[in-house]
Amino acid sequence: MTMTPASPSTPHTEYGGPLSSTMIFLLPALALSSKVGLGIVQLMILLLLIRRGRTLLPLYQRHWNDIGGVVLAFGGYFLVSLARLVLDQQRLNTLDGPSRLLFGLSCIGVVYYLRPRARHFWLGLCFAAVLSAVVALFQVTVLGMERAIGFTHHEITFGDLALACGLMSLCGLTDLRNTRMAWLPGVGLVCGLLASMLSASRGGWLALPLVMIPVARYGVQLYGRRLLVVGAALLVLVVLALAVPATGVAGRIEQALAEIQRYLTLGDATTSVGIRLELWKASVMMFLEHPWLGVGRDQFDVALHALAAQGRLQQSPALLYSSSHNDMLNCLATGGLLDFSLLILMYVAPLRFFSRQLRSVDRGQRPLALAGMVVVVAFIGFGLTDVMFWLMMPKVFYVMMVCSLVGMCLAAQYPAPVPRRILIARTDNIGDVVLTLPLAGYLKQLYPQAEIVFLCRRYAAAVVAQCRHVDRVLTQEELGDDWADGLARSGCDTMIFTFPMRTLAAAARRAGIERRIGSSHRIHHWYHCNRLATFSRANSPLHEAQLNFKLLLPLGVDVEPPLEQLKTMYGLNTPRHPAADALLAGPGFKLILHPKSNGNGREWPLQHYTALAGLLRGVEGVRVLVTGSAAEGELLAQQAPALLALPNVENLCGRLDLDGFTALIGGCDGLIASGTGPLHLASALGRPALGLFPPLKPIDIVRWGALGPRARSLCTPVACGHCEDAARCTCMLAITPQQVLEVVESWRAEALVPA
Predict the structure, then answer these.
(1) Distance CA 205, CA 386 (A)
(2) Cβ neighbours of residue 386 closer than 8 Å, sequence gap 6 or more
(3) How far apart are CA 402 and CA 107, in angstroms?
(4) How far apart are CA 685 and CA 673, in angstroms?
(5) What's the whole-number mean pLDDT along residues 91-116?
(6) Is 541 helix (H, G, I), strand (E, B) or coil?
(7) Which strand ranges, in their side-by-side order, compose the sheet holding 622-626?
(8) Residue 409: partners with Cβ closer than 8 Å, 6 or more residues away
């Protein structure tokens, strides 16, 4: 029963639930909107790391060869800051920024564990870039602001982060290629550039040629001609920006050149560029006097005024600043070679990680690694004219983006641990249970070393026990009063809720089952399950047995088995039972009629069953066996006494337990019923079976039709128009006893043909 595209040897990319993808989608937009939003996301990630520490912390040790440099870079900066706080007796709040860099490392483990979809990350970047452009246009054109500041209250920060989002969104060209959003990365890039231009942040423009180096180096391999098209469009956009005076780009460049000239010739430190050059000059002086540890991280302005007091700096607006307006110079001035080396390490370690990922066999991590390289190189460029690691928002943005991309690269590079014990939960009716058995068979093929456990109600356990694909049957009743404890004792690491049940999902969460897979269409699954599959059962054109396979999507398995293949995947054996053997031992063609459905589906009228049994009186050797529960037998005695009174009819209602009933079905020559459990059981056992259905979604043939190698289904070709109202619907009545008789006669003819 080999099935494509999945096979046991195929590595699968496992995905987390919508919450993890929502988090990674919102991260760029939150970075551009407020420090509070970004801080909340970082706090949530940190709390999740603490809560799942026993699971997540070993990940850092397991992948230390890959991420050790990144951890040492950001963690080392915090440790050095802590040491300086103690030795220099600094205020505790000086650890605020360094601690954010340390906490940002939690993104690696949490993102690797949650495994958000990369597509949501690309969409989030594009959304953030477009949002920044819209806000910038509104602020400049409607509010009349000279420079767009977004929600950051800082023009340079806003322009640089918007540009970073636009540049990174370009790396999603491959992942969004075959979707309706294939055009978004290009739009995101344009919008990021537009927001940067409207913020008039010239430092961001210096980053563009630097970013083009890794994009040109690796992008051609990933994107081919599409990158050339985007590059050409980018070049046109830059030319237009320079040519159109309204953009202010050419004017800002000319102004910068003029200000450099004024500083060099006249020593003018009152202009924007002149102030920066004066600060850079002061930073070099501070470094030369304190090369190893600098003047102190919070002592820049003190040292600046000291230099001015000594007459080494002129009195200018530069004395109002508290940083160098250059990351590297600021580190050299305030922290000496020690802080400078830490800054370089925070650049080099991620670059080394991402370059290795780009050179590795592509398992989906290369576009993510290129985005990581882009954000690092962009921040190097931004840091030439601003202090990105001195300001809180860009600092947090950098560490969270870098570490999130590291986590996503690892998730793509290293498949999730193979499930060891998979629990399939189907705690409703027998028919539903039977139609879930092919899923057990496929999982057994996919993970041959895994143990397949099936959770059902006790009354259905006898059927599941006959399935060759199920290693152990666990009943809901066996869980005891504390379901969480019972599930924990099962030792399962993966649980699939093919039937949504809130209390059971809550128990699975409390039991600590590692993977809990459910439908996103159930609100409670968003809290209790950590792997969600998004699909609709009610509006789907798929059969119920096929729909169960949609729950494998979070495991990275996208398979839709054809119905013909599913017919052979039940793996059910026919049990032996003394009472059933005695009934089957007699001569004749043994036909089971199962008139009732316990309220499931739409039933064929009892008068039609009576008429069919009457027609079969004239067919030699046909034994009509009427089955059902004891309660259903009482209903039949009241509602269809004529049926039970026919001489060729044997009333077996309530006479067999489920083992005996299964054995009877497995040995019969045919079964007729509406869409109910015995119909699906007969189909699965390979017996001739006929299902009778109304043309009404979601209880029609498409969703619940008989599915077996010798199974058939009947339905009226045209709906009566009143199917929603069972009292007025005539569709089941329109299926005539004569039509059903013809099917029975075809079965009988097949039985008479010598093997």
Answers:
(1) 12
(2) 156, 157, 160, 203, 325, 326, 327
(3) 9
(4) 15
(5) 92
(6) coil
(7) 649-651, 622-626, 589-594, 670-674, 689-692, 711-714
(8) 353, 354, 357, 365, 368, 369, 372
* Predicted local distance difference test score (pLDDT) of residue 21: 81
- CA–CA separation, 648 vs 631, rounded Å? 22
- Tokens 């020690």 -> residue: 338
Report pLDDT digits (tens) over 439-478. 999 999 999 999 999 999 999 999 999 999 999 999 999 9
pTM above 0.85, yes or no: no
Question: Smallest Cα–Cα separation from 694: which of 669, 672, 671, 714?
Answer: 714
Whether 324 has a pLDDT exceeding 80, the answer reads yes
Structural contact between residues 28 and 124, judged by C-beta atoms closer than 8 angstroms = yes
| Length, in residues, of the chain | 755
> Residue 591: which H helix or E strand, with range?
strand 589-594
Highest mean predicted confidence (pLDDT) among 84-88, 111-115, 351-355: 351-355
Higher pLDDT, 598 or 635: 635
> 243: which residues sit within 8 A by CB, 6+ positions away?
250
Torsion sign over Cα 63, 452, 450, 440: negative
Domain layout of the chain by residue ranges: 18-224+294-303+335-413, 421-567, 587-752
Q: Residue 626: what residue type?
A: V
Look up residue 130 and give its amino acid. Answer: V
Of the chain, the end-to-end C-alpha distance in Å amounts to: 25
pLDDT tens-digit readout, 708-754? 999 999 999 889 988 888 888 999 999 999 999 999 999 998 877 65
User: 616-631 in b/e burial notation, b at 16+ Cβ within 10 A?
Assistant: beeeeebbbbbbbeee
pLDDT value for 225 = 66
Tokens of 230: 């985007």
DSSP codes joined into one string, 237-274: HHHHHHH-GGG-HHHHHHHHHHHHHHHHHH---SSHHH
The residue written with tokens 């017996």 in the block is: 687
The secondary element (H helix, E strand) that includes residue 217 is helix 202-223
Give the β-pairing of 670-674 and 589-594: parallel
Smallest CA-to-CA distance from 410 within 119, 174, 114, 123 is with: 114
Q: What are phi and psi of 451, to 5 degrees?
A: -95, 130
SS3 assignment, position 359? helix
Lowest-pLDDT choice from 240-249, 425-434, 646-655, 709-718:
240-249
Q: Can you read off the two tokens belonging to residue 603?
A: 């039933």
Q: Please write the tens of the pLDDT for every residue from 246-301.
A: 666 677 778 888 999 999 999 899 999 999 999 999 999 999 999 999 999 989 99
Are 421-567 and 587-752 equal in CATH topology?
yes
What's the pLDDT band for 228 if we cut at 50, 70, 90?
A: low
Query: Measured between alpha carbons, how far is 114 from 531 in angstroms, rounded to an integer?
Result: 9
Concatenating the DSSP letter of every residue in 696-725 gives -TTSSHHHH---STTEEEE--SS--S-TTS
Distance of CA 20 to the CA centre of its chain: 7
Q: Which two tokens stand for residue 37?
A: 């939003």
Residue type, 566: L
Alpha-carbon distance of 527 to 725, in angstroms, equals 36
209 pLDDT band (50/70/90 cuts)?
confident
In angstroms, the CA 545 to CA 52 distance is 35
Domain covering 587-752, topology: Rossmann fold (3.40.50)
- In the CATH hierarchy, which fold is given to the domain comprising 421-567? Rossmann fold (3.40.50)
Token code pair at residue 650: 């044997």
| Tokens, residue 577 | 């039972």
Helix and strand counts by DSSP (H, E) for the chain: 32, 12
Q: Identify any residues that bridge with 412 across adjacent strands, giving them in sequence order.
A: none
Q: How far apart are CA 496 and CA 505, in angstroms?
A: 10
Supply the pLDDT for residue 10: 41
